[in-house]
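Dock zinc ion; give full complex structure.
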Amino acid sequence: MPDLPAATPRARVRVPLRFQDGYGVDAELVTFHGLADGQEHLAVVLGAPEPGAVPLVRLHSECLTGDVFGSARCDCGPQLREAVERIATRGGVLLYLRQEGRGIGLYNKLDAYALQDQGLDTYAANTALGFPEDARDYTAAAQMLNALSITELDLLTNNPDKAEQLRGLGVAVRDRIPTGVFTTAHNVRYLRAKVLQTQHTLPIARLTEFSDLNAG
Ligand SMILES: Nc1nc2c(ncn2[C@@H]2O[C@H](COP(=O)(O)OP(=O)(O)OP(=O)(O)O)[C@@H](O)[C@H]2O)c(=O)[nH]1
Ligand SMILES: [Zn+2]
């Protein structure tokens, strides 16, 4: 088990979240000192778990295009919206991790999009640019959970690697809970690649509903 450097909470601020579809909830935003990668990751604490209950947690990787601008090339925006409500209902934390483009950054992600428009899939585009298929490391996430005194959790994700990495960092992931399936005509190739290449648990049958599937 790696010896994790300790991080400590820096500011705790209450913020009323109001979404365009009318849903609203109050959140506590927590910032940190001492995160291993020096990034400004944010914890969004939602709801109040029953005393002794295991909290629901999501590690959400930043996606400016999907989270902010509503890009339909991926499923990040709807996953974020869903996660906030599910976590608020049960009680838990969303870690908003500054891992744009699976850790390669926004400009590189858009370079990868340009390659995808020439036919490469989402992972091959990363390697063609000289990056790993997925450059994310969850050490800072484990530090944040420790700083929030969360020792056991249920993880809201389709990505087995997130659970495995967290366990390797000493966090007790009890259950992995899949997110919803948010398909559009623009993201079906991307979702399919996640299932076939990185074993994301999305029901592949649902990904044949869209007509551009045969495009690759
Ligand atoms: N490099 C690269 N990153 C992408 C691409 N599309 C989305 N992303 C980034 O991928 C991250 C989300 O990762 P995903 O693989 O979609 O999903 P996940 O986080 O592994 O799994 P879930 O927890 O189930 O959502 C965000 O940081 C996005 O900015 C792409 O085509 N190339
Ligand atoms: Zn996205």
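Observed: Residues 186-216 form one domain.
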